[in-house]
């Protein structure tokens, strides 16, 4: 029973949030679009002028651009596949009756709370370092030559690090969804003679579909912005082997001081992210309403 | 017999679950262990697990060489400041959307979430330059505001889903009894909403603490939080494993402990109530 005065109060209380988010969204975006049309290098402020879309053509034409898109896709899809598949398996494992489930949950969730640069440095130095990282020690123990992970497979290595950070999140959400499933349904299927694989495929997986959608949506938002992991491990290299779109724009802006081209890249990133977001919103909206 | 089988099966399940959990946790465990090793033993081959000469020297060195507590304090200010400010702005918004929903409430919520979709790097250049011109680069104020804006949509969404669960009739009853809007919020809503607000605070403190895009790009020295502190170890200092481990442990320990307490709330919080 909302009265007119309470409606007015509601609008009043809503406005600070709406205004700051609107400003936060529109002002920088408008400025980015404006810069993207200018000749604007922070090191050479005397060269100015409106150059239409030349920043865009420069950015897109650079060989790093296409590879950065591909790298971004590999990273995001790679992490999603690893976390969802392993997340389901681990959630199924923990969901069964075990001793010390509480402690197991705490151990499994822990990587999620590790600050990204810390996680990346631990993996880079103490595990993947080819001279005295633990993986090199393990290889030595097995009589194999050590492998230079970040030198020879930089993107795969970073994907692995990021997947380690997000696997707990996926596992925990899928576990929560599993625990809300009624055991009667499973038992009924069991009595009807469905084997474990069929039970998983026809009962458990459909039940998890909503949770899986949510995992994909939320992880994608964060994964498109992966930054610190690349900064402290490979710095985008060797060459551009691990340069994602985010990192390419960063290099252009804060290392190349080329504000115009970086802004053009930023606009492209925003457009691409919005395309992804629209698809996700449609998928999630459908799944969440049901 | 059935009981014996089930205990055997439970043991087996327990074994596999613990194995997986320990593998996932191992990098953290290894870091904490290494932080107590003398530098020479940290790179011993084959690696030493517990039979090394335990020492606190690395912690003393890290504080002496890199002034850990300055960074720590900046992290505390940024995490608490941004979350507190966000919750202060977010509570009224979430309250009004939960209890006085309009035709556009759903669209509004979706729009707020969509601002999270905007890649931060897309607006890096203008934010950097605006900050430079306003003298906000490398200030805690600037970082508090930016991190708050990053997390505000999540804060509002979380509060909204918690407030939604409070029955509106109670508020109406209070209104009938002549409670003003202010009293209604203070005496009726707030006590019921405390658990929800607390988990919103907890989760967003964790997110703000671990934020590593804006803090890395907008802070230099004065306002630099722990993300910047630890990035200083990227190379070649990172090859001093024991010191790197001590620094890492100091950067993650406070938030890891907070995280353990919040893990029950984490799922519904981060999925905006979609998975409970």
Question: Any overview of this molecule?
Answer:
The complex is a heterodimer of chains A (290) and B (276). Chain A has 13 helices and no strands. Chain A starts with a helix and ends with a helix. In chain A, helix 5 (116-127) crosses helix 8 (154-179). With 290 residues, chain A is mainly α. The model of chain A has no long low-confidence stretch (mean pLDDT 86). In chain A, 44% of the residues are buried. Chain A has one domain (62-289): Orthogonal Bundle (MetI-like fold), CATH 1.10.3720. Chain B has 276 residues and is an all-alpha fold. Chain B has two domains: 2-58, no CATH class; 68-231, MetI-like (MetI-like fold, Orthogonal Bundle), CATH 1.10.3720.10. Chain B is globular. The model of chain B has no long low-confidence stretch (mean pLDDT 85). At the A-B interface, helix 1, helix 3, helix 4, helix 5 and helix 6 of A face helix 1, helix 4, helix 5, helix 6 and helix 7 of B.
Short description:
The complex is a heterodimer of chains A (290) and B (276). In chain A, 75% of the residues lie in helices and 0% in strands.
Produce the secondary structure layout.
The complex is a heterodimer of chains A (290) and B (276).
Chain A (H helix, E strand, L loop, with lengths): L3 H33 L17 H8 L1 H33 L5 H9 L6 H12 L6 H8 L7 H4 L1 H26 L3 H9 L4 H28 L4 H6 L11 H11 L3 H31 L1
Chain B lengths: L1 H33 L4 H4 L14 H10 L1 H32 L5 H13 L6 H11 L5 H25 L3 H9 L4 H29 L4 H5 L7 H6 L9 H30 L6
Helix pairs in contact in B: 1-12, 3-12, 4-7, 4-9, 5-7, 7-9, 8-9, 9-12
